[in-house]
Write a structure and sequence with these properties.
Helix content is about 30%, strand content about 15%. It is an alpha+beta fold. The chain binds iron/sulfur cluster (2 copies).
C-alpha cells in the first residue's frame, strides 16, 4: 500500500519527539559520521534518557514545536545528518501511515490552511 504521508510536506514533526532513543550502535555511527570519538559523540549529541542507561538525542529550541532534535535544519526542516541518523529515525514510522502526519493533515483541513503547522509538539 502506498504511503499515506508525505515528509516533504511536513516540518519534521517526528523529530520534535522528546524521547528519540539512541543505541550504542547509533552512537558509534554518529561518532564516525562526525569524525569524533564515541565518548564525544555520546556527550555532544545525546543526553540522559528516562530509564537507566537510556540515551536520547539532544534537542534545540524550535519555532514550531518548542524544541526539536538538534540535527534538524531550522529553515529547510530536513535532517542534516541523514546518512548518520539513528536506526529509529531510519525505521520510523514503520508502516504506511504516520500518526503525526495524520494529525497535521487533520489540523490543516480544520484550519483550511494547507501550510498550517501545529505548535503543540
Ligand atoms: S512526522 Fe511523519 S510525515 Fe513528518 S517527517 Fe516524520 S515521518 Fe515524515
Ligand atoms: S537525527 Fe535526523 S531524522 Fe533523527 S530525529 Fe534528528 S533530525 Fe530527525
Amino acid at each position: 500500500m502506498a504511503n499515506q504521508f508525505n515528509c516533504l510536506k511536513c516540518p519534521a514533526y517526528c523529530c520534535s519527539y522528546t524521547r528519540i532513543i539512541v543505541t550504542p550502535g547509533d552512537i558509534r555511527r554518529l561518532a564516525k559520521y562526525h569524525g569524533v570519538s564515541e565518548e564525544t559523540a555520546r556527550t555532544r549529541y545525546t543526553k540522559k534518557g528516562y530509564e537507566k542507561n537510556e540515551r536520547i538525542l539532544r534537542h534545540k529550541q524550535d519555532e514550531h514545536f518548542t524544541t526539536i532534535c538538534q540535527f534538524v535544519d531550522s529553515e529547510t526542516r530536513r535532517c542534516t545528518i541523514y546518512a548518520g541518523r539513528p536506526k529509529i529515525c531510519r525505521e520510523f514510522p514503520g508502516t504506511h501511515r504516520c500518526g503525526y502526519y495524520d494529525f497535521l493533515s487533520f489540523e490543516r483541513r480544520t484550519q483550511e490552511d494547507p501550510d498550517y503547522i501545529s505548535t503543540t509538539g
